[in-house]
Amino acid sequence: MTSRLGKAWLIAGYFFLYLPIVTLIVYSFNDSKMVMLWGGFTFKWYGVIAHDTEVLDAFKLSLRIALLSATASVLLGTLAAFAMVRYQDFWGKTAFSAHINAPLVVPEVITGLSLLLFFVTCERLFGWPDRGVLTIWAGHTSVGMAYAAVVIQSRLLEMDKSLEEAAMDLGCKPFQVFYLVTLPLIAQSLLAAWLLTFTLSLDDVVSTAFLSGPGSTTLPIVILSRARLGLDPTVNAIATITVAVVSVAVFAGSLWLSRQETRRAQEQAAAYREGMQQVAA
Amino acid sequence: MPQTNQALLGEGEAAHRDIAGRTGDGSFVRIDRLTKRFDEVAAVDGVSIDIRKGEIFALLGSSGCGKSTLLRMLAGFETPTAGSIQLEGAEISPLPPYERPINMMFQSYALFPHLTVFENVAFGLKRDRMSRDRIAETVEAMLNIVQLKPYAKRKPHQLSGGQQQRVALARCLAKRPKLLLLDEPLGALDRKLREQTQFELHNIIKKVGVTCVLVTHDQEEAITMADRIAVMSNGRFLQVGQPHEIYETPNCRFVADFIGNVNLFDGTIEAVAPDHCVVATNGGRLTVGHGITGGPGMAVSVALRPEKIELSREPPADRASNCFSGRIADSGYFGRYSVYRVTLAGGMKLQVAITHSERNGDLFVSGEEVYATCQPESLVVLGA
């Protein structure tokens, strides 16, 4: 009885999670200008966006900003995580820690607004920077860095510290320890942090709305403004492509990870059996 | 504490009891009044010791006694608060770990998981800017010593615990260190693997001839592996000596209790002669086969190892030995030997270990009346 009830809840949960996405995908094949009225199956909206220069330009810009800000976030996030984990005490560590975590809890509207005010003041005083790619990039990086730092920090904390000591013991200077041992060992978390900040940047609307200038419209901004003018099936098509790309990437990624995990466990078990046989012999 | 205890021992016994273990000339590593404080708490408190070339020296103590801090100061991971460390006469305490001719095998082995066995062993050699051929040659030689040549291409997680330990050892030895440090070398291994590994490790170190300092909380490990042992407590050395000295002639209650099992009697001295003394204890009057420097009336402890006691059902004919009568409280059969706990007339429980030298030897059962005897030479007087 309980298990049947549990199953019902589970299914209700899945509906809640996936029904909106499924609806969106289905209606992207709708051959009718009216979004919520089914008018037969068609691929035409996909054709339309392929020739929509506004969408294509916005997509390219989003991609460029996401690449740049993910990379910058991981670089800065690594440094920040290192400072937090490897240095016991330094002047202002609490303030630094608060600064790293602030973007995670401060509403993005506030972050966006404060950055906007800052850039406007800068522009008035120094005539630089114009609002555009640079300011969006800076905004995304300041948020992304916080996420990256948290991800990398947790990996650094769980890493066996004696690995770094062993490297030093074997003759590595501190910098060599970092790039010969630490970096390869946290590589997976760097990749995870990069993907996370890339996605965050790619779909960011709020701070981008504050920081973008004329001629620097990202894809989410385009979608938002079109949706505001009245729903348009092209938006559904864009969204469907995004969902498809993301699901394939996530699915492939987790498959690869679980395969590796299984192989590793098998190899470990084999090594253990072998060891036991040698003891017995 | 140890200083006062030393005074109790006869002169012959005290001769090899220099707590600093000063050996005069042959000193290879000289640690002098070394101290490490963490926020006013002294983890290592003014320790001095000379370690000879080629010696395996064990630091033995329970967790928190300062043994690991001492080892980490030798490796260079901790900076001493005071004192000096000299290697072949040169002060090394200001040097960072990567400039010391010292290598450490970590308790977790700290093998680099992203590198193969070969690359792990070669890691330290590459830092020395050795040529590729020389590196390959050295790594091969090292893997031969630890009998892991067929495993060169494997990653650490593809090895068993014992094999991982040997890779860690090979990685240290490849650098040809002047001093090898082992942190709980057998701590991460299964019980069954330990015994075998213990001897292998000892043989390899002796074959290579490297001077070695090892840290352990396991007395058996220290006794079987080391040439000399320092028993540590609260950041200080309580006793330094060869394994049999530490075991047979402990200099204080702590050492006697820490190494192996021991029966401790509390009592006062009744009479002292040059070659023996008599102590009145809670277990009866004991004749101890060595002289002491204290006088009658002094409070002392007497230590007696369980395996140095004999049990019989009849009173012993030999009047010279110490004899207790009592009743078997409980017994444990361990195959090789049995352990009995005997309740003595005074209420004290005496632990006795009897080796089974015959297949169908006699076993005592609980409740039996027995006589326990021991020779005066088996007893050691310690400070109370």
CATH class category of the largest domain in chain B: Alpha Beta
User: What level of helicity do the residues of chain A show?
Assistant: over 70%
Number of domains of chain B: 2
Discrete helix count of chain A: 11
CATH architecture call of the largest domain in chain A: Orthogonal Bundle
Distance between the termini of chain B: 10 Å
Taking the sheet with the most strands of chain B, its summary is: 6 strands, mixed
Structural class of chain A: mainly alpha
**Rg of chain A, Cα atoms, Å:** 24 Å
Query: SSE string of chain B, helix = H, strand = E?
Result: HHEEEHEEEHHHEHEHEEHHEEEEEEEEEE
Strand content of chain B: 25-35%
Look at the structure and give the CATH class of the largest domain in chain A.
Mainly Alpha
CATH architecture of the largest domain in chain B: 3-Layer(aba) Sandwich
Tell me the CATH superfamily of the largest domain in chain A. Answer: MetI-like
Using a beta-carbon cutoff below 8 angstroms, give the protein chain pair with the largest interface and the number of residues from each chain.
Answer: A-B, 28 and 34 residues
Task: Identify the quaternary structure here.
Answer: heterodimer
Measured distance between first and last alpha carbons of chain A: 54 Å
Question: Care to describe what's here?
Answer:
- The complex is a heterodimer of chains A (281) and B (384).
- Chain A is mainly α and 281 residues long.
- Helix content of chain A is 81%, strand content 0%.
- Chain A is built from eleven helices and no strands.
- Chain A is globular and about 75 Å long.
- By secondary structure, chain B is of the alpha+beta class.
- Chain B folds into two domains: 180 residues, P-loop containing nucleotide triphosphate hydrolases (Rossmann fold), CATH 3.40.50.300; 123 residues, RNA polymerase II/Efflux pump adaptor protein, barrel-sandwich hybrid domain (OB fold (Dihydrolipoamide Acetyltransferase, E2P), Beta Barrel), CATH 2.40.50.100.
- Helix content of chain B is 25%, strand content 34%.
- Chain B has ten helices and 20 strands.
- A six-stranded mixed β-sheet of chain B has the order 6-7-8-3-9-10, sandwiched between helices. A five-stranded antiparallel β-sheet of chain B has the order 13-12-11-14-20.
- In chain B, helix 4 crosses helix 5, helix 4 runs parallel beside helix 6 and helix 5 crosses helix 6.
- The chains are: A mainly alpha (281), B alpha+beta (384).
- At the A-B interface, helix 7, helix 8 and helix 11 of A face strand 6, helix 4, helix 6 and helix 7 of B.
